[in-house]
Amino acid sequence: MSKVTCDVSVTLDGFSAGPNQSEARPFGDVDGEALHRWMFEQAEQNAAEVADILTARAYIMGRNMFGPIRGDWDRPWRGWWGEDPPYHSPVFVLTHYAHEPLPMQGGTTFYFVTDGIESALAQAREAAGDGEVSIAGGAHTVSQYLVAGAIDELRLHVTPVTFGQGERIFDGVGPLNLEQIGEATGTDLVTHLKYRVVR
Amino acid sequence: MSKVTCDVSVTLDGFSAGPNQSEARPFGDVDGEALHRWMFEQAEQNAAEVADILTARAYIMGRNMFGPIRGDWDRPWRGWWGEDPPYHSPVFVLTHYAHEPLPMQGGTTFYFVTDGIESALAQAREAAGDGEVSIAGGAHTVSQYLVAGAIDELRLHVTPVTFGQGERIFDGVGPLNLEQIGEATGTDLVTHLKYRVVR
């Protein structure tokens, strides 16, 4: 069965976003760019980790990661990533509000799943074949899949910043049985940590 | 002026102890040993980091790190570390309850400070001379000194475990301006991260 991975950039105090996310401030009232400077300012040094993120053949994300609209889909929204999102694969978006699939350029199609995380995972597994399924975020989606015991490999990208408030990926998760895979790697803008989640 | 450092072992979800600490369970209702396996099972690989912890010429710790007694000193207690604690220097213990100094073997003396964190820091600076002052823990002591802007160098030892509850060093601290010092190092039981706290 396909491996389920999860890549998240987090602050040193465990947040993957601040409070009050909006279209103008996708990461909320914090310096959200601090979470991803390593990807852009040090693309070469971190090329292997970025490639690993984009290896999956299907992705799952929460609706709040997909966009700023809450409640009904009251206006068009095609994601944060332009017409050719980096996923190049099916992306299953968890939501309580049905929406037609959104085919994008480059092989990405956003599918909207209204019947829960297990259904989304089943659909993503089927789409991925023997490829990886990646839990893309945000915090609440990651914590739900951790609680469900569905993540095989957790890959944290720890950035040298603290937010002090916002959304934590481990909130409500409780103790996990983790095995670190190898030693940490990284730069002065990020530390890559990989864990096998033992069940 | 002497540099103020702070070394803390933390879980991946940011805890340095679990809930309900007691004499029988110094780290509370969690697998507290998981925080320090790296020191004991991999002493050689981590010798440099342990040496750095023991470089300081004065230490400050919270009363709950010193021992399990809460409220009045209602029975003798000489710390968790036996008659020759590893500090070999003055250790200033923050408490609301006065206590005579406790000289131990090997150069460690526990002094009990009842007039607050600034007083403890001033006394530790004086004792350290041009050596380092180390904030030794626990979580609440670390967060108080972070909030006060008194820590120059924060050294986290991140262990591959989550507690899900307990005491977090960053609780109530808010956003910090951190500069990571070099790249992470470590083993499969610990990741060492060093930060300059910029004011």
What is the 3D form of chain A?
Answer: globular
Mean pLDDT of chain A: 96
Cα-to-Cα separation, first versus last residue of chain A: 16 Å
Could you name the CATH topology of the domain at 1-18 and 45-68 and 84-178 in chain A?
Dihydrofolate Reductase, subunit A
Please explain how this structure is put together:
Two copies of one chain form a homodimer. Chain A has helices at residues 37-41, 47-53, 63-66, 117-128, 139-147, and strands at 4-11, 15-17, 58-62, 90-94, 102-103, 109-113, 133-137, 153-159, 167-168, 178-180, 185-186, 191-197. Chain A has 199 residues and is α/β, with parallel strands linked by helices. In chain A, strands 1, 3, 4, 5, 6, 7, 8, 10, 11 and 12 form a ten-stranded mixed β-sheet that branches. Chain A has a two-stranded antiparallel sheet with strand order 2-9. Chain A starts with a strand and ends with a strand.
